[in-house]
Write a structure and sequence with these properties.
Blueprint lengths: L18 H4 L8 E4 L21 E2 L34 E3 L5 H9 L3 E5 L6 H17 L3 E5 L7 E5 L2 E5 L4 H11 L14
Parallel strand pairs: 3-5, 4-5
Antiparallel strand pairs: 1-3, 2-7, 4-6, 6-7
């Protein structure tokens, strides 16, 4: 499924480029509930030998950093790799989506992103999805839950190079995807990932 560039006006509200400043909770427009990553080292769920990773594997588009605002074309929607901005979005639950250029950096840092179509996921399902994201963040806070208006399905789960689409909310599928992909991005080594 060819992707298009998806850029949002959601940007941090400061002009500072300090990495610690840019990932500051209060600066991200649309962030309604932050998840704090307190250490670089994180628990790494074990995988049994021969485990098949859930989702469709997309070709790796690299890890190039580009200037904020650069238009980027990806090979999936939502993207799973490729050029991205020089710092990630803050981890947590959003009501307005950060631009893909930030989110791809989160994937590079071993994160899992849960995108949902707000026309299809509402009320009780959205409440359940938020509760599950909170619960998963207690194990490892490298997770983002965000709406995505141009999503062709109800929910899309993404990790570096992987995308799994769900027609409806399925807590088991979300947990399995998270457990098998969390802290396995290209900048992670045995659970040690950048913030």
């Amino acid at each position: 499924m060819p992707g298009s560039s998806h850029e949002s006006s959601s940007q941090p509200s400061t002009a500072s480029t300090s990495s610690s400043m840019m990932n500051s909770i209060r600066e991200w427009k649309g962030l309604i509930e932050p998840f704090l990553v307190m250490t670089l080292e994180s628990p790494l769920p074990s995988l049994y030998p021969g485990t098949i990773l859930p989702g469709i594997r997309f070709p790796d588009l690299g890890q190039q950093h580009v200037e904020i605002g650069t238009s980027i074309t990806y090979n999936s929607n939502p993207p799973t790799s490729g050029p991205h901005y020089s710092y990630p979005a803050a981890w947590g639950i959003y009501k307005d989506p950060p631009a893909d250029g930030f989110l791809v950096h989160n994937l590079e840092h071993g994160g899992v992103i849960i995108s949902y179509n707000p026309k299809q996921i509402k009320d009780q399902e959205l409440t359940q999805l938020r509760q599950q994201a909170r619960s998963l963040s207690n194990f490892n806070a490298r997770i983002i839950l965000t709406p995505r208006l141009n999503l062709d399905t109800s929910i899309a789960l993404t990790a570096w190079n992987y995308l799994q689409e769900l027609d409806r909310y399925n807590s088991t599928a979300v947990k399995v995807f998270y457990d098998t992909h969390i802290v396995r991005g290209p900048e992670c080594q045995e659970g040690l990932c950048p913030g």
